[in-house]
Amino acid sequence: MRMGIIVLGLIALLGCSSVNGDTEWWQTMSLYQIYPRSWKDSDGDGIGDLQGIESKLEHLVDAGVDAFWISPIYPSPMADFGYDISDFMDIDPIFGTLDDFDNLVATAKSLGLKVVMDFVPNHSSDEHEWFINSMASVDPYTDYYIWKNGTVLENGTITPPNNWVSVFGGSAWTWNNQRQAYYLHQFAEEQPDLNYWNEEVVAAMKEVLVFWLDRGVDGFRVDAIPHLFEDSTFPDEPLTGDTDDPTDYGYVEHDYTKHLQETYDMVQQWREVLDNYTENSDGVPRIMMAEAYANTSMTMKYYDYGAHFPFNFNLISNVDGSSTAAEIKESALDEWLNNVPDNATSNWVIGNHDQSRVASRYSPEQVDAMNMINLLLPGVSVTYYGEEIGMEDQWISWEDTQDPQGCGADEDTYEDYTRDPNRTPMQWDATTSAGFSTSNSTWLPVNSNYLTLNLAAQIDADVSHYKVFQELTTLRKEAVIQEGTVNVQLLNDNVMAFSRELESSSDSIMIVVTNFANHTEMISLEAFENAPDTLVVSIASIDSDLTAGTTVSKSSLEISALAGLVLRASTASGASAVVSSGVITLFMAVLANLRY
Ligand code: GLC
Ligand code: MG
């Protein structure tokens, strides 16, 4: 009896620090993006694959992430490295087989990791059998894509039906001899846009979702959503006046090819597919994350139409390493936090396969501070592979350029467009090809800095980006991060800080301070009324000259150039030590009771 009471007491004690029972798994997740060509090659062909990913899943557990999203692994001619899909329901032999996929999912589950697939609904490959049949006008595929007669000029030549421009440059229309018509492609010409006005296309793409749900996936990252629907009367887009080059995507506005209301309605339909699946199976939510480069209101609108969350690209699109602390606060943090709907789950993204790496877009010195912002603000954090060790962009020659967005430009301008520099192989260690492949020759060259910048070295080092990352993912699991309020403050021109706090406990406060200047700054944290007079450094960026455990004063604190610090009330870490020693004492008491 007495022991029962003690055990109940123990459970209650531990319960205090546990997180809210109503939270669904995805709302607090740290998500990791794997670019499959570049993560781990198992068969020595210089291209990453599924068995490679499976062999390295322990890394994700070690890094403390909860879920991973894999960029496309479906059969593809690789015109856009997997974003041109020739079969939505299979695996490309470069990456492996469906069996490899099932094994990967099983291993992920056994490690407690959730698996998110990339769903690419806007277009297929021009080698998809749907398109091959559509070119030949074979039903029901005839209208699976957007076909249009050209405009016949007086001299007899045919030109595209209107002035729409492809994201990758050039007309969004390509002439097809077989069909004697133009087809629409908002991306590369090898990526014909599917016709969402056709109910059969809508139904076929829903089947794709169910196919992967049946294989055990936990959700989808949905690619290029704003481009789904186009105006079916095909008007010319208005000119922006920004450039004279009619082949540049910025030549026209995209009023008739992006953000149509029907696109949002389709997202809502996909949500219904996911929710039905959940209801008819185990009740665990399957999630949908929307990739939409859009203004704030168009982005937030995805919450109203069924997305679990639209990616928050503010730290990518609105600011960079040249931004002031005020700009970071206003254009990235406040812009999101002041506009996100009530009760919606926020998210933070600092990199992906389409963007220059954090160390290059900001600076190598800011990697830890940016990871602090990404991982300690409310909601989901999204980490692109390699950012946990601060990988940097690698310059790629014109000859080695692979990305269609780079190849579509010319030798003088490709560097402005190419996404290859941020897609180089994961730097695991200092062996051949950074431990990515046994081959010396990899699909993109390994970054030349891999001998010193690699995961193994950072595991061995006392202080490293990776160790900071691990400390951050550990901290994320605490209630103050999962449930706490957020308060963002500009401390001076160069220093931004935010606190996370639990209303129930005043010593729970945690403050992240980030200096965006190239010099040391003296600041005061008086703006955080609830902070105690002295604080303790809990996590420090690697070049900050401060170490965990150092006591600092609220009224005057020195923060070095580009540093990031996580500060806590001295009682916060002490408190958890007291709790655990209390637990141990109680256990001893239980044991003592049992013995006598
Ligand atoms: C998305 C992807 C990008 C791809 C494009 C076309 O923006 O992130 O990599 O090129 O869609 O599918
Ligand atoms: Mg479209």
Automatic annotation (TrEMBL):
Residues 33-423 form the Glycosyl hydrolase family 13 catalytic domain. The chain crosses the membrane at residues 574-594. It catalyses: Hydrolysis of terminal, non-reducing (1->4)-linked alpha-D-glucose residues with release of alpha-D-glucose. InterPro entries: GH, GH13_cat_dom, O16G_dom_2. Keywords: Membrane, Signal, Transmembrane, Transmembrane helix. PROSITE patterns: PROKAR_LIPOPROTEIN. It comes from the Eukaryota. Residues 1-21 form the signal peptide. Its EC number is 3.2.1.20. This is alpha-glucosidase. It comes from Neodiprion lecontei. The gene is LOC107224616.
